[in-house]
Amino acid sequence: MTFLEPLTLTGRHVILEPLAMEHHDGLLEAARDGELWKLWYTSVPEPEAMAAEIRRRLALQELGSMLPFTTRLIDPGTGGPGRIIGMTTYMNIDPATPRVEIGSTWNAASVQGTGTNPDSKLLLLRHAFEVLGCPAVEFRTHWLNHQSRDAIARLGAKQDGVLRSHSRTSDGNLRDTVVFSILEHEWPAVRTGLEHRLARRG
Q1: Who contacts 142 (Cβ-Cβ below 8 Å, separation ≥6)?
Q2: What does the pLDDT look like over 75-90, one tens digit per residue?
Q3: Model pTM score
């Protein structure tokens, strides 16, 4: 048994289930909702590259460095899995510490601001801190992705620093990467904040 095995996590608004090739068509529709691949500061695959991106994430899962999820809405009628709205992952997995990064996340434009993202983060953070026993959970984003930086800060994460000229984007430009983290002793306050945000949405 490895440190992180595929699993399903269920929240108020979303279900995170293990990524599979059978999710391809649903992920295509989710990415087309807002043409997310056209946002220069994100790494959402273009429609013709979606299958390769699923295979890439599954290959990293086999190597033990990533645990990828497909994000679904909860069907209000059945309470079960509804339509696919995006992807998220545990990545840069360090089983020795243990420590994970939550990242490579995107959601369809029509569900942004509806509570799906904080619900997803609550599920992943709760599992990381309360089941896996992580002393810290990390987040990284592009310096110029202010929407993502603001969303991570709203979670209660603290900015650790900036990795300047850290990597190249798909268009070849150098990217400055902002690193945030939440520590184990900060988790109870972060959890309360996320639960409060979700309760206000009903």
Answers
A1: 41, 148, 169, 175, 176, 177, 178
A2: 888 888 899 999 999 9
A3: 0.93
Q: Quote the tokens at residue 98.
A: 């243990």
Give the Cα separation of 198 and 115 in Å (integer). Answer: 6
The tokens describing 176, both together, are 């400055």
pLDDT at 163: 94
Residue 36: per-residue pLDDT:
79
Q: What HEC string does the chain produce? A: CCCCCCCCEECCCEEEEECCHHHHHHHHHHHHCCCHHHCCCCCCCCHHHHHHHHHHHHHHHHHCCEEEEEEEEECCCCCCEEEEEEEEEEEEEECCCCEEEEEEEEECHHHCCCCHHHHHHHHHHHHHHHHCCCCEEEEEEECCCHHHHHHHHHHCCEEEEEEEEEEECCCCCEEEEEEEEEEHHHHHHHHHHHHHHHHHCC
At 112-141, the pLDDT tens digits run 889 999 999 999 999 999 999 999 999 999
pLDDT at 1: 45
Distance CA 67, CA 100 (A): 10
**Residue 70 in tokens:** 């497909």
